[in-house]
Write a structure and sequence with these properties.
It contains twelve helices and 14 strands. It is α/β, with parallel strands linked by helices and 413 residues long. It has one domain: 3-Layer(aba) Sandwich (Alkaline Phosphatase, subunit A). Helix 6 packs antiparallel against helix 12. InterPro entries: DUF1501.
Length: 413
């Protein structure tokens, strides 16, 4: 088999993808543009403990259920940061407190997937497909959202930062995946003039793959131009940020500022399965939350005026049990807290139907119930922020419950 035939067969079998940079790929794409509104989703894989992120320090049962890992009341040593007199923010997330005070940050407590699974794999799959309990869904809800937005999808309309294309962006609509860290925006072999021209000649007029190839090349150029601009700004403004999420957040913010075609972005972060030695104000969880809070603050700040057009959602597959276990950690639970940030957010509030931590109010007597379906929060953002009509919304979240939230996490237009 000749090289050309082998590459064609590979593309036909797996769906053609075009290299954008080291570890970066774009799927088949078409030309077009969107409406300028942005959505960023941060997925915390492993089930973050929402009862430590937004701690109900005013609940009389909280400290009793968590004798070694409960946060103290605001003002005490190791205490939570004051939010509203009942809930407190984990102190490792102090960089986010100004956004709360500016009413650009809100939480939806006792939220999550209605499916009862305590399997990380299944719960993440349901949250990314947007169809809890249905394993046969072929694509992710962000991919369907990319296809439902106004205008024709561009090669860079939907962007992910991570090692592989995530479930949430898989599907027929074009999407770009970039590796985390600086590797995601390094030049690739097609940036070498001779190789680039050879591949251009190979695919330029190909009936089946020519358009996809050119779309991938265009996406690569968009990303490289935006990244080059960012490196220049970093050289002018001082040293680069630390490795990890803060660094990726800075890169993402600059890419979105420099490329108006990027409307949807997704980042997944692991390390939240705290079965042992979780800690309270300090410890394992605090060590995970600190760079997350720093990165979100960096993302909001570096978006600049674009933050007014951007909504950022942080979510996790499920919460953790209300009672700590014998290892100083928490086991798999049910309800959790969603985070919503952005210039259009009606922030400074903890939303949701909160029933407290009394045993008769807990799911199965052990963890938070889900009183707000995560899809209803996302649907509200899709409609009010991104402008989707009801018919389009039904395509993004099929079989979603008819009853929507009684609150709005977004300010009135």
């Amino acid at each position: 088999m000749q090289r050309r035939d082998f590459m064609h067969a590979l593309a036909a079998g797996a769906g053609l993808v075009i290299p954008l940079g080291r570890h970066a790929w774009a799927a088949t794409a078409a030309e077009g543009s969107g409406n300028g509104r942005r959505l960023i989703v941060i997925m915390l894989r492993g089930a973050v403990d929402g009862l430590s992120v937004v701690a109900p320090v005013g609940d009389p049962h909280y400290a009793r259920l968590r004798p070694t890992i409960a946060l103290a009341r605001p003002g005490a040593e190791g205490g939570a940061l004051e939010l509203d007199g009942y809930f407190g923010l984990h102190p490792a997330l102090a960089p986010l407190l100004p956004l709360w005070e500016q009413k650009k940050l809100a939480f939806v407590h006792a939220s999550g997937s209605p499916d009862a699974t305590r399997s990380h794999f299944d719960a993440q799959d349901y949250m990314e497909s947007g169809t809890p309990g249905a394993k046969a869904t072929a694509d992710g809800w962000m991919n369907r959202l990319a296809g439902a937005l106004p205008g024709t999808a561009t090669p860079t309309r939907a962007l992910s930062i991570g090692p592989t294309m995530p479930r949430i962006l898989s599907g027929r609509v074009p999407a770009v995946n970039l590796a985390g860290g600086a590797a995601g925006t390094r030049a690739n072999v097609l940036d070498r003039p001779a190789l680039g021209r050879a591949f251009d000649q190979l695919y330029a007029n190909h009936a089946r793959f020519g358009r996809a190839y050119q779309a991938g090349r265009d996406a690569h150029q968009e990303v490289m131009m935006a990244a080059t601009d960012m490196e220049m700004q970093m050289a002018d403004g001082g040293a680069p940020l630390p490795n990890g999420f803060p660094d990726d957040a800075a890169r993402l913010a600059t890419l979105m500022r420099n490329d108006p075609n990027i409307q949807l972005a997704f980042v997944a972060l692991g390390g939240w399965d705290t079965h042992a030695s979780q800690g309270a104000a300090k410890g394992q969880l605090a060590n995970r939350l600190a760079p997350l809070g720093q990165g979100l603050e960096v993302l909001a700040r570096r978006l600049g005026p674009l933050l007014d057009q951007t909504t950022i959602v942080v979510m996790s597959e499920f919460g953790r049990m209300a009672r700590e276990n014998g290892n100083g950690g928490t086991d798999h639970g049910h309800g959790n807290a969603m985070w919503v940030l952005g210039g259009g957010v009606a922030g400074g509030r903890v939303y949701g139907e909160w029933r407290g931590l009394a045993e008769d109010q807990l799911n199965e007597g052990r963890d938070l119930p889900v009183t707000t379906d995560f899809r209803t929060v996302l649907a509200q953002i899709a409609q009010r922020h991104l402008g989707l009509a009801e018919r389009e919304l039904a395509q993004v979240f099929p079989n979603m419950p008819a009853q929507r939230t009684r609150f709005s996490v977004l300010r009135s237009a």
